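Hey, why these numbers?
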Amino acid sequence: MAKQNSEPLLFYRSKPIQEEPKFHHRFVVEFPEEFNLHSYLVQSVSPPIWENNKWGEMTIIFIDVLSKCNSSSMGLMNMINFSKKHKPETFLIKIKILGPVGEITEEWLIAPLDFKVIFSNFEYDNKNLMTHKLIVYPAEFTMK
């Protein structure tokens, strides 16, 4: 018969872990109210790329909904119309990274230098969600 070890096995750390990993789905994107672009319409965000000592493009994908006033297509048109009267860098796009219970753990602030909108195709044989793409060229990018 094998001899049993009298010392207890430790399956835990002696100190609690203070950090938790980030998860891809814990984020909220906020736009200025006048655009009427709601955070629940954002499907995905690819963050800006730092290359050659400047910020490169970032992409935000929106799902569209059947609504006269809350669709992402109308919100993106509001953004386009705003930019015709004001420089894009006069507004901020905020990406809020959320913790396990919804608290904001990090905030990214993007001031667009410019942007482009790519509206979805209309296709009879495509039964997928309709999505629109916003490509942002940041003038400034900061994290809090």
